[in-house]
# Entry
Amino acid sequence: MPQAVETLAVPFRNPFHCPVQVYPGERHARPLLVLPAMGVAARHYRAFATQLQQQGLNVLVPEWPGQASSHPRPDRRHDYGYRALLTEYLPALLRLITARFPDSGKAVLVGHSLGGQLGTLYLAHRATAAGAALPDADLFGVACGNIHYRHWQGRQRLFTPMAALGFNLIALLLGYLPGHRIGFGGHEPPQLIRDWGRVAWRGNFRHIGLPLAESVRGARASYLGFQGDHYAPPASTRALADQLGPHIPMRHLPAIGNPHSGWLKAPEPVVTALSDWLGAC
# Structure
């Protein structure tokens, strides 16, 4: 269980109140900011965060704005996309880490699926002149990737772009995506769904309107995938890692139940891989 819960007031165009679960470890241990997958509540990372905390690490797990225990729910008025998350929400979370754990050093973004994608873009944007003032961080991506259709094989190439088109139409009509009803994501804002879906068709992130470095010299990052993960196959993960440079390592582990998110119920292999990587940094 987290020993504290902080609440961030995130302005965007209209404010969101975002709870952040805090698992304090040892005073000088590395702080980890766990960025959840789309539609996955912070409580589902409890076993993962607790095992990291037991190793002495300081762990924070936020809700995405408007998801789970965060309010209000997204709609046409309470909307946001990748740009707002990268330039406002993630920096606010990293500043919270600095305030909460001032002696713990540089934070590590531990991003699952959408969280890994956003963590990658954060490092790529920070490496540009426009993003240079943002707080620094390292990155450990889990089951994440660039969702361009060319990174899949056979009929699976059709699934992601067609799903993206359908999700965008639903969000356009309703003013939000009812993810829990259709089996994908949560109560998602329309701009986020548009940003996510355009990657499936274009294979890049130019549409979010932020400068992104094509390679980040000295970036400390690593990517971990799972065999048989149809949501983040190796080509997809490699393409995302290449946003930071071809030198960024990636590896794959045997699947644990559902290859994309089953590890949340049995996080030991991911905890071990992350701990080994931190020890080597």
Q: What stands out?
A: Residues 26 and 276 are 18 Å apart (CA to CA).
